[in-house]
């Protein structure tokens, strides 16, 4: 589950609320062990996602760096190449 959480800091354009919420959802899923919680746990699960997302927003807004912002397309291509190397089939 957590392998889907992407680095969100120092990108141009900055991470969107949807990206931050998606990362928070993956994090809460990993912690809770639920992909989809039961009705009895839904409210606590949703509250946790919102709280983690809020904390992530504060964190991202508080961080600073002197490095140039990364390009999303270049980073995505690097990730695809790593995946190709990792999962290539031996002939």
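^ Assign residues to that structure.
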């Amino acid at each position: 589950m957590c392998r889907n959480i992407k680095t969100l800091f120092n990108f141009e354009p900055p991470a969107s609320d949807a990206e931050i919420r998606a990362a928070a959802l993956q994090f809460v899923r990993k912690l809770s062990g639920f992909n989809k919680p039961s009705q009895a746990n839904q409210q606590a699960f949703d509250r946790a996602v919102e709280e983690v997302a809020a904390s992530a927003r504060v964190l991202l807004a508080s961080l600073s760096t002197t490095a140039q912002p990364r390009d999303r397309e270049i980073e995505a291509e690097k990730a695809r190449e790593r995946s190709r190397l990792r999962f290539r089939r031996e002939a």
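The chain has a mean pLDDT of 90.
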